[in-house]
């Protein structure tokens, strides 16, 4: 391939759009294995390239007429869709506004509870942590409707996602014969239009108020900003944490970035048990903030602390290296935050560090010998 004058390569718009869609889809769904997810995503995209999905008046529910099937990859849901909003530029690194906080629209506790319940089962919201969900609920604004008023119209560009507070709303689909038919009716609750949070695409159905009603709405720009900026901040936070772990010096910078994306946050209370002696290892932990007490039970049943860990330390990895049950327990000391790495991701991402972790086994055994005076029954201290 010839290089343009000046040494710069222009990224084609189609390539940019597809990669952006894949990236956001990955961030939304947060699968365990990025490689397997990528293979599945692009295979489905290829298989559905020429598929046209027809939405007709036979749709039995609004999920079939307004909301696309979850099994289909986002880029393949509509063959004739408009340009993805992922191509609308938003760079979280350049957004240095205070927390990127959207406007907060007041709601009662009861309203917030109903909103949270309404969006809980929607795919796009499943990956949000508690803080992100609160930002989403804060950012939803109220919209009133009158009988006969169209909230959305089939064929219009999607802009907002809606949650019904009260009122009756009909879902209508216009068929090839030009006749508009009611395919579903919401009575006092429900949600619709979440594809607008991902795509600037024509609506697949209309929604019309049958009675006076109230809805809560959220625009796609606010949703993307909350999601992308939170994901960006999480990566930066974990990259800084991982940079302080000596064991990870063997990783390349891109490998540490992949590791940061794979970590899952957990908040612990004082005295909370994190891993139990004798359990099967399911992953390892990095201490984000607070303290961890590593304890081992003696024959008399009493637990003895063998180590105290702090910010930047890690634990639980040796049981993964030795493939043996946990040989010690770990407890949170005071309010503590940790980041969890599951066993499959551990094996995939931390191969270059395996020898370093194996060498650590000898150090832990020496500590136990000093404590108990016997090495005969020792395996992995964590």
TrEMBL record:
Record-linked SMART domains: cNMP
GO terms for cellular component: cAMP-dependent protein kinase complex; cytosol
Kindly list the positions annotated as binding 3',5'-cyclic AMP 2.
Answer: 317, 326
Q: What region holds the Cyclic nucleotide-binding domain?
A: 124-244, 247-367
Pfam families (UniProt xref): cNMP_binding
What the entry lists under SUPFAM superfamilies is as follows: cAMP-binding domain-like, Dimerization-anchoring domain of cAMP-dependent PK regulatory subunit
Please list the GO terms describing molecular function: cAMP binding; cAMP-dependent protein kinase inhibitor activity; protein kinase A catalytic subunit binding
Q: Summarize where 3',5'-cyclic AMP 1 binds, as residue positions.
A: 194, 203
Query: Which UniProt keyword terms apply here?
Result: cAMP, cAMP-binding, Nucleotide-binding, Phosphoprotein, Repeat
Q: Does the keyword Ribosomal protein apply?
A: no
The family line of this record is:
Belongs to the cAMP-dependent kinase regulatory chain family.
* UniProt cross-references to PANTHER family, sorted A to Z: CAMP-DEPENDENT PROTEIN KINASE REGULATORY CHAIN, CAMP-DEPENDENT PROTEIN KINASE TYPE I REGULATORY SUBUNIT-RELATED
Protein's recorded name: cAMP-dependent protein kinase type II regulatory subunit
Which organism is this protein's natural source? Leptosia nina
């Amino acid at each position: 391939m010839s290089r343009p004058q000046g040494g710069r390569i222009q990224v084609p718009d189609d390539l940019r759009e597809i990669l952006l869609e894949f990236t956001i889809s990955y961030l939304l769904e947060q699968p365990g294995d990025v490689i397997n997810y990528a293979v599945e995503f692009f295979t489905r995209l290829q298989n559905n390239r020429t598929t046209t999905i027809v939405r007709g008046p036979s749709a039995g529910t609004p999920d079939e007429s307004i909301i696309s099937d979850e099994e289909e990859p986002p880029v393949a849901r509509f063959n004739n869709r408009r340009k993805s909003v992922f191509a609308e530029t938003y760079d979280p690194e350049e957004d240095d506004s205070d927390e990127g906080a959207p406007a907060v629209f007041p709601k009662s506790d009861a309203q917030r509870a109903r909103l949270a319940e309404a969006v809980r089962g929607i795919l796009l919201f499943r990956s949000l942590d508690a803080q992100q969900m609160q930002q989403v609920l804060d950012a939803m604004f109220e919209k009133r409707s009158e009988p006969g008023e169209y909230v959305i119209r089939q064929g219009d560009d999607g802009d907002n996602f809606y949650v019904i507070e009260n009122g009756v709303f009909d879902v209508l689909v216009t068929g090839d014969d030009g006749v508009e038919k009611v395919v579903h009716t919401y009575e006092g609750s429900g949600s619709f239009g979440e594809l607008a949070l991902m795509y600037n695409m024509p609506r697949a159905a209309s929604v019309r108020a049958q009675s006076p009603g109230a809805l809560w709405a959220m625009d796609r720009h606010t949703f993307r900003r909350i999601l992308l900026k939170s994901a960006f901040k999480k990566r930066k936070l974990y990259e800084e944490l991982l940079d302080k772990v000596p064991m990870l010096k063997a990783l390349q910078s891109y490998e540490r970035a992949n590791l940061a994306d794979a970590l899952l946050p957990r908040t612990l209370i004082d005295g909370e048990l994190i891993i139990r002696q004798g359990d099967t290892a399911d992953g390892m932990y990095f201490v984000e903030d607070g303290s961890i007490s590593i304890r081992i039970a003696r024959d008399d049943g009493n637990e003895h602390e063998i180590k105290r860990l702090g910010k930047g330390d890690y634990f639980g990895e040796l049981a993964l290296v030795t493939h043996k049950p946990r040989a010690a327990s770990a407890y949170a000391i005071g309010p503590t935050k940790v980041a969890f790495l599951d066993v499959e991701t551990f094996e995939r991402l931390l191969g270059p560090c395996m020898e370093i972790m194996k060498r650590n086994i000898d150090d832990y055994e020496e500590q136990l010998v000093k404590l108990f005076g016997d090495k005969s029954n020792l395996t992995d201290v964590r």
